[in-house]
Amino acid sequence: MKPSDDTKDLLKACRTGFETHTQFREQLPKIVDNIVESCHDEGCFEHIDAELIPSLESVIDILTRLREILFPGYFSGEKLDPANLRYKVGQSVDVLFESLSEQITRSLRHECLRYDQPCIECVSLGYEEASTFLSSIPKTREVLATDVRAAYEGDPAAKSYDEIVFSYPGIFAISVYRMAHQLFEQQIPLLPRIMSEYAHTVTGIDIHPGAKIGESFFIDHGSGVVIGETTVIGKNVRIYQGVTLGALSLPKDAGTRLRGKRRHPTIEDDVIIYAGATILGGDTVIGARSVIGGNVWITESVPADTKVLLEAPRLIYT
């Protein structure tokens, strides 16, 4: 039986499609060669023949396990009681020590070999720094407890401490910041910034791990908050969504000229900064107990006990 004309057309279309696919696949070796060649261009970035950087997946797992220890019973997924607490915490600390040591070692070794730094015995130092970090957890827990209380006292919508710990993005961002800041203070490269940028991705709150933030810190709502590297924040400070604590306009070569220098403001104790406020500059100091209104733009210091507000806008109804 001879194939019908319709069948012939289908077979022809199939052959044509296969031939077209083959023609395009034959172009792939040249495409690959061009991509590989571009890796050697001075203007492009590559990470070839370099040590592994910390793993984002491992960093997320470390932060998850740390939250389970910082807030026992909230995020463990299983019931904790006085009888099994020591056992469960011991398990978590053991896993954390191995994982954190590896990621710290990766960070140190990467800096040594990538940038020709002097050898610092990365593996042994990784163990030492992981132990130092884990030893700091009780102190970090104490400070985070003040942050949770500040959130409860500063937000009438909060029904309980549990609600704050479980669900407030500000507390999550502050928790990650306090862990990343500890590693930053230990001068661990890469890892603190990876942690803080993960929290930034999740919450929209961008806190550089180098910032210095006192206890009882509360970020309400949170989205769009930016806190720069050299910011100093005192105790009992409350800020709202969209607040920027940033640097003044930077010159083209700012990365070289200003790296490591004060560029961000100082916020003294008991200050409230409302939504959308922008405070810029390393010489700018907001005095204690001041209130900064929404949407203001500040590049000069404000004395203590001062309110800074915009004039009421004139509304137009049509």
Short précis:
By secondary structure, this protein is α/β, with parallel strands linked by helices.
Which features does this protein show?
single chain; 318 residues; alpha/beta; serine acetyltransferase, domain 1; UDP N-Acetylglucosamine Acyltransferase, domain 1; 2 domains; five-stranded parallel beta sheet; 10 helices; 10% strand; globular
Set out the fold topology.
Layout: H1 5-25, H2 28-38, H3 56-70, H4 85-114, H5 122-135, H6 137-154, H7 161-167, H8 169-185, H9 191-203, E1 206-207, E2 212-213, E3 218-220, E4 226-227, E5 232-233, E6 238-240, E7 244-246, H10 254-257, E8 266-267, E9 272-273, E10 278-280, E11 285-286, E12 291-292, E13 297-298, E14 307-308
Parallel strand pairs: 1-4, 2-5, 3-6, 4-7, 5-8, 6-9, 7-10, 8-11, 9-12, 10-13, 12-14
Helix pairs in contact: 3-4, 3-9, 4-5, 6-8, 8-9
> How far apart lie the N and C ends?
80 Å
Shape: globular
Q: Give the class from helix and strand content and strand pairing.
A: alpha/beta
Order of helices and strands: HHHHHHHHHEEEEEEEHEEEEEEE
Oligomer: single chain
Give Rg in angstroms.
27 Å
Strand content: 5-15%
User: What is the helix content?
Assistant: 40-55%
What is the third-level CATH name, the topology of the largest domain? serine acetyltransferase, domain 1
* Main sheet attributes: strand count, strand direction, barrel closure: 5 strands, parallel
